[in-house]
Structure formats: structure tokens, C-alpha cells
């Protein structure tokens, strides 16, 4: 997915973003989802398929990436 055109992307970030430490998300052509660092929008964006994005969001909602003891606690570790 190295050839994804991001020039027309409309980037959004959370309304709760106030310190600048945020990511921005955009829907891209072909159903892809782009994610980039709001502090460095000129840098490369990560691009996910809808299935990858859905799996990530489900993991967030399920607590798969919750911090415990200053490290990520992945489901496989539980």
C-alpha cells in the first residue's frame, strides 16, 4: 500500500485533543483508513484496510491495549 494518494484526504482528530499529542484519521479511496501524527503531518501515514482497522478498534474497545505496569498488556499475555 505504498502508492496510496493522501493528497485529497480530509484528516480528523478527536475533539478531546488539546495538547497536540494526537493522531489524525482519514478515510481514503478504496475504503482504506489513514492514520498520521498530528505533530508531523508531513511524515508518512500508516494505511490500514477496513478489516485491519475494524480489528484494531475492536481490540481497543476490548481493552487489548490497556496499559498495565508501564507496558502494554496484550490479550495473549493475560
Automatic annotation (TrEMBL):
Pfam family, any one: DUF397
Domain of life: Bacteria
InterPro entries given in the database record: DUF397
DUF397 domain span: 11-61
Protein name: Transcriptional regulator
Amino acid at each position: 500500500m505504498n502508492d496510496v494518494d493522501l493528497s485529497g484526504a480530509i484528516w480528523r482528530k478527536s475533539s478531546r485533543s488539546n495538547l497536540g499529542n494526537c493522531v489524525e484519521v482519514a478515510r481514503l479511496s478504496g475504503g482504506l483508513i489513514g492514520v498520521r501524527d498530528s505533530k508531523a503531518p508531513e511524515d508518512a501515514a500508516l494505511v490500514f484496510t477496513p478489516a485491519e482497522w475494524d480489528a484494531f478498534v475492536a481490540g481497543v474497545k476490548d481493552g487489548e491495549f490497556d496499559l498495565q505496569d508501564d507496558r502494554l498488556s496484550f490479550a495473549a499475555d493475560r
